[in-house]
């Protein structure tokens, strides 16, 4: 298969990039390992915060629908259930259709592989019944399945509170939100108030010591001060934050540098969202953990840069578009967390001085 | 338990199918992954770890952690959180490693 642009990952950043390239007449192929478009956005029934200014407020799955619908009229070929497998010697990308692996050769590649949740280990954390907070949301909003009867939630980010409410709405009793620090890590007061209104107990200065059960979780032991409290629960949802998914970049031999706030080791890129490999661009959480707004905007920037490099967009126009998109990212990121924006800028400056390069030559 | 009427998304579960877990028929819906359908039927333990024989089940539901591997229609190591159910699917817990290289290779 041949195409102008191959997009790896069909979440919000990938969809936004596909629109930029597709609407300017480039042939686009988009692959994703899952069975539907929209990435994690598709199962988010909460309102999305921090969207770029041109978007009205909406829920995650509504935004996914909007991004998908805007591709309809353009030459975008979508291959779901098609994971990236590796790289052929001639530079084409190996993709699996579940039975065979075949090559896609593209003039440009945009990698928007998103983020994965982190685990927080405690004794027996691998026991069935322990899952990431996102997994619990997936069961409820993608698969329409109640993940358990009584849940303990470990961690208290805005996302964890969203999911706690969503679990409660489908009949899961929330036995408690366990937070290691002295206050909730969530920043959104509306969400915190919802938790309080729902009478969900919050345990600060506490952590899960161990879970117990015969083949699946039946009890959760929570350390609080000098005391260990036993909860009877069959579900533990772990809110460990997110880290960028980077395997594809390793395989494509992109250089990396470390940015704590953006999620640790992430592929390097310049202000065009172009990686150290000339034909490879990136966007979304793969370019650093951030808010929905930046996820979309970085995807758009990557799409614009590809259009410029393939000659369907003038350099002047591309530059001014990128300028204004970066201004929006700055507004979104510095409103929430000054360090995030500053680290993104540092990361871009570091582009010329890669820390980890050619590390995977075999 | 299946969510028949989702508080925000409404009714989404159509197309009931039957899958077999350890020979036992279970009801599922085409809109679900294998892992989710099992959980809806009260099955949480999907297999056992190779060395310590510890129970394993769904963890990430994103195809990342491989904790949900099972044998599906005779195929070993299927990530059940990523694969949708199909009627008459036969699902068996993951007990140890598949014989990838084969006895004949001296392994
Ligand atoms: S639960 Fe992690 S890969 Fe399926």
Automatic annotation (TrEMBL), chain A:
<dbReference type="InterPro" id="IPR051691">
    <property type="entry name" value="Metab_Enz_Cyan_OpOx_G3PDH"/>
</dbReference>
<feature type="domain" description="FAD/NAD(P)-binding">
    <location>
        <begin position="4"/>
        <end position="287"/>
    </location>
</feature>
<keyword id="KW-0560">Oxidoreductase</keyword>
<dbReference type="InterPro" id="IPR036188">
    <property type="entry name" value="FAD/NAD-bd_sf"/>
</dbReference>
<dbReference type="InterPro" id="IPR023753">
    <property type="entry name" value="FAD/NAD-binding_dom"/>
</dbReference>
<dbReference type="Pfam" id="PF07992">
    <property type="entry name" value="Pyr_redox_2"/>
</dbReference>
<protein>
    <submittedName>
        <fullName>FAD-dependent oxidoreductase</fullName>
    </submittedName>
</protein>
Automatic annotation (TrEMBL), chain B:
<dbReference type="InterPro" id="IPR036010">
    <property type="entry name" value="2Fe-2S_ferredoxin-like_sf"/>
</dbReference>
<protein>
    <submittedName>
        <fullName>(2Fe-2S)-binding protein</fullName>
    </submittedName>
</protein>
<keyword id="KW-0560">Oxidoreductase</keyword>
<dbReference type="InterPro" id="IPR042204">
    <property type="entry name" value="2Fe-2S-bd_N"/>
</dbReference>
<dbReference type="Pfam" id="PF13510">
    <property type="entry name" value="Fer2_4"/>
</dbReference>
């Amino acid at each position: 298969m041949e195409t102008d642009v191959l997009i790896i990952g069909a979440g919000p950043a990938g969809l936004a990039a596909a629109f930029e390239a597709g609407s300017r007449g480039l042939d686009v192929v988009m692959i994703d390992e899952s069975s539907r478009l929209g990435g994690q956005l598709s199962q988010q029934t909460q309102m999305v915060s921090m969207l770029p200014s041109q978007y009205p407020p909406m829920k995650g799955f509504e935004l996914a629908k909007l991004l998908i619908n805007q591709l309809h009229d353009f030459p975008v070929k979508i291959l779901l259930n098609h994971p990236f497998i590796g790289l052929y010697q001639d530079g084409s990308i190996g993709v699996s259709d579940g039975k065979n692996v075949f090559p896609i050769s593209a003039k440009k590649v945009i990698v928007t592989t998103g983020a994965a949740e982190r685990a927080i280990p405690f004794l027996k954390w691998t026991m069935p019944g322990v899952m990431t907070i996102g997994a619990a949301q997936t069961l409820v909003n993608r698969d329409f399945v109640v993940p358990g009867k009584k849940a303990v939630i470990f961690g208290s980010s805005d996302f964890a509170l969203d999911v706690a409410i969503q679990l409660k709405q489908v009949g899961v009793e929330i036995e408690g939100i366990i937070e290691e620090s002295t206050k909730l890590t969530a920043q959104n007061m509306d969400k915190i108030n919802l938790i309080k209104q729902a009478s969900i107990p919050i345990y600060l200065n506490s952590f899960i010591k161990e879970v117990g059960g015969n083949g699946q979780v039946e009890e959760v032991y929570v350390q609080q001060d000098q005391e260990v409290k036993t909860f009877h629960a069959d579900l533990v949802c772990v809110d460990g934050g997110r880290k960028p998914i980077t395997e594809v970049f390793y395989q494509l031999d992109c250089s990396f540098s470390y940015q704590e706030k953006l999620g640790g080791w992430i592929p390097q890129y310049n202000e065009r969202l172009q990686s150290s490999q000339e034909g490879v661009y990136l966007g979304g959480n793969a370019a650093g953990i951030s808010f929905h707004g930046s996820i979309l905007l970085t995807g758009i920037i990557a799409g614009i840069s590809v259009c410029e490099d393939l000659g369907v967009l003038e350099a002047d126009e591309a530059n001014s578009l990128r300028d204004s998109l970066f201004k929006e990212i700055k507004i979104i990121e510095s409103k929430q967390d000054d360090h995030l924006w500053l680290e993104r800028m540092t990361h871009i400056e570091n582009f010329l001085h890669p820390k980890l390069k050619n590390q995977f030559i075999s | 338990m299946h969510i028949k009427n989702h508080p925000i998304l409404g009714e989404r579960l159509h197309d009931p199918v039957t899958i077999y877990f350890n020979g036992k028929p279970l009801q599922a819906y085409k809109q679900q992954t294998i892992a989710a359908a099992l959980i809806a039927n009260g099955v949480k333990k999907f297999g056992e770890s190779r060395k310590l024989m510890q129970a394993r089940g769904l963890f990430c539901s994103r195809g990342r952690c491989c904790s949900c591997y099972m044998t599906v229609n005779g195929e070993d190591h299927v990530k059940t959180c990523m694969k949708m159910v199909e009627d008459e699917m036969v699902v068996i817990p993951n007990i140890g490693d598949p014989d990838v290289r084969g006895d004949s290779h001296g392994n």
